[in-house]
What does this fold into?
Amino acid sequence: MNPSWAVFRKELRTESRARNGFFTAGMFSVLAVVAIGLSSFGQRPSESLAAGMLSVTLLFSAVVALPRTFLVEEEQGTFSLLRLMASPEAIFTGKALYNFFQMMLTSVVLGVLFSGLVGRPVEVAWLYGLGLGVQAASLSSAMSLCSAMVMGASNRWILAGAMAGALLLPQIALGVGLFRVCFGEGSLVGGIQCLVGLAGYAVALGGLGPVLAGAVWRSE
Amino acid sequence: MVINLFGGTGWDDPSPHTQTQITRPTLLTPRTPVQPRHHRSGHTLDVIEAKNLGRRFGWRWIFRHFEFELKAGDCLAVLGSNGSGKSTLLRVLAGLLEPSEGSVLRSTWGYSALDLSVYPTLSAREHLQFASETRCLPDPRMEILDEVGLSSAQDQLAGQYSTGMRARLKLALAIQSRPAVLMLDEPSASLDERGQEILGRVLQAQLETGAVILATNDPADRRWANLEVRLDEP
It folds into this structure.
């Protein structure tokens, strides 16, 4: 079996028992969408506003849940054990895959709830579905990379804030641009460009992650 | 003579960055005359070799100019007071820390330490299964759980284990791949009488085919060693 796949399965198994990530992300997503739905009840938010709210909700779901996959290893002292079993590259890849899986589930739940509760119909459904998937990939790549880089640092939260800000800002811009088109504003070409931009971001960070994690973890 | 041991001085470094205190030289002393133990193949087996090994945190050298080689049947005890760098040395030898200088050549190895934790939401069986998958071992060797006395608790989550049971699980993980060198940091801490017996059997079996490195403060653990090294502040 591929070591990365083994790490992914381990994450799935431990999470299915502890349920911390799913609970945190699910709770946040549901509460955020319900709050947005209640506050905009009887109104029809503009396409841009709806796109902004959806992007921000996705972003914060990722920020509250995904770093845990890495940080919990450091907090419970199991990271050395994991390092003894698998290469840093395999560990990063397995954990990033798990983060993607978790973020996909969160995005599906959030996307369905958002389109149902917020009074803004989805005009381009295929782009909406694809956009949620690509945004999930992009956010999980960025958060995995960020968490892997800072997990061993004593000032990890300061570092995480600085890194996440730089990594996530372009994603918010691209996400808002993409979902605006999904809600019916702007050209389809613009939406597809944003989608491709997010996909490129996901691939670049996902490809860079194992290399950087290997370099940083080995030198600690 | 199996052992090739050189203690560097640690004080003669011309580097301008070593104004801070340098740990006293590695001093390796064979306790008893060592006879080469032969592997099944009939040859003595080099299982680990450290060349000019050094590790520093910031500008402070924890150890320096550390050289040794061990063959099957050798047991090296790393001694020293708290904070002298025993655990750091073992972490470098196990590949968990990069050496600041020098290199380590090693065959397969297993490592267990007091500060290593196991997954509280996985059972002992799942730990071994996971380790065999990540290490690409064809067989997870579940019979090891018998050897370390955990077979009756193999499906219990490790979070429900006592400290001694966790130590035995870590030992099982360390020997799972039949390592050529077994590195144990404070192996007998937290083990009861039965745990000590199990540890003794594991060490005995390991020394039949491979080498052992023990970092310890417990004088009783020194009985296993034919070599000693003391890491202490000068």
User: Anything to note?
Assistant: Strands of chain B lie at 6-7, 27-30, 46-57, 60-71, 75-79, 101-106, 109-113, 181-185, 211-215, 227-230. The two ends of chain B are 29 Å apart (CA to CA).
